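Q: Two folds, back to back.
A: First:
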Amino acid sequence: MTLNIISAQQVVFSGEVKSVTLPGSMGSFTVLQNHASLISTLTPGEVVYVDNEDQTHNASIDGGIVSVDNNVIAVCVA
């Protein structure tokens, strides 16, 4: 899967991942390979992702939106 985390100022992260956990407005949720397509709003919190080398990373966000489609996760943050 490809994860892109972008803000108005910069690309925070862009790369291949195994999983992504996001702070959704209805609660935290995890996206895995071949997840159904979705669009969701995000609340302030942590985006936690596991890269293809099984390293876990965190990115603090102040909210935003996420789109998941065809194994591409696009996170636009405030």
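A: Second:
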Amino acid sequence: MKILFVAGGVPSRIGQCHVLDLLIALSKFHQVSVVCCDLGTSAEADAKDGLRKIADLRCVPCPRRSLLSKGLRSLWSRAPVAVEGYRSAAMRDAVCEATRDAKYDVIIFEQLVTAQYGRLTNDVPKLLFPVDAVSRLKWQRCRASLNPVRKLALWVDYLMCKRYETRVYAEFDGVMLVSDADANYVLENRQLNKSSVFLLPLAVDADYFVPRERNTECGLSLVFAGNMFNYINEDAILWFFREVWGGLKKQLPKLKLYVAGNDPSDRVRALAAKDSNVIVTGFLEDIRPPIWNATVFVSPLRMGTGVKNRILQAMAMGKAIIASPLTIEGIAVTDGVQVLLAESTGEWLKRCLSLLQNGGERERLGRQARKYVEENHSLRAKTSRFLDIVQQIKSSRHSVPMDAA
């Protein structure tokens, strides 16, 4: 089978890892091609050589536009600002060229921002893989904002995104999402009917993200990992530092906090300047070492949709985890069995202090977390589910309605 992925970034272990794992698995038995926006990050540059070994790769530089420019374009086109950031004649030409040169069995458009190129593919079966229900995330962000002017702007962006989703979803044979919560949101808002919504759970490369004994010489430490240019992750670590970190330091003065992830903002970098026990790593070619060496993995997300890759990776690495309820959305774990949940400042303080001082409990949680990932988020299961969705799409295209016979 010949499969084309149109992606919003170069698939790597840092970004679009949900596409990378599929490409690796599918390339063993199928012919895969990728047309993607190149955001110019170092992680993407490092990933290209590896991608070319498994797929026909075409990278198109992502246009650099100011927020004002994207905003004006958005008002004209009535498409979300983020979509205008990815609108590119070069990308359009690359998609057209790829589909002209080869006949694909199915084309996957990854992220909502690439949906604008879906209509260029003529009669080829096509799936949209926005990963998350984007407008749901925008509503969460609007609800959390306290600034009235900013809240209004976010509300307008939410409405625009929701209308755009409803319009473009209809142009595809199906839409794949990674969590039940997002699928239910789409159905409840009547953006699609049930037959066009498919669940494709995220997977973890459990041979790469493996448990390893931590370096105890590092002392007690917490780690938070994620793409730090993402405002969701920035919000989470800023909240944790403001509401929880001070209380922990009073009880455990030598405790360290590692913030691991690429492109941290000035506000995140400032945390290290305020407290020498906070280490902001910036970009890492390998995210595993700071997670291995941390005593406890924390994920205090206050907004977000879909399933969180980093939490699954930490679970696969056998880490003891404390997370907000929203962090584990879409993951069928139980509080106290595979992870510990915390929401309020008091809960975070209590559970962090307890787990940091209880090695036996950390080992138990880590074993259960690893077991859960092995049983429920294997790459084999994800690949099988993806191929099943493709087959359903192809079969529905060839089915003949009874009243048309």
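Q: And?
A: The chain has two domains: 2-203+379-396, 216-376.
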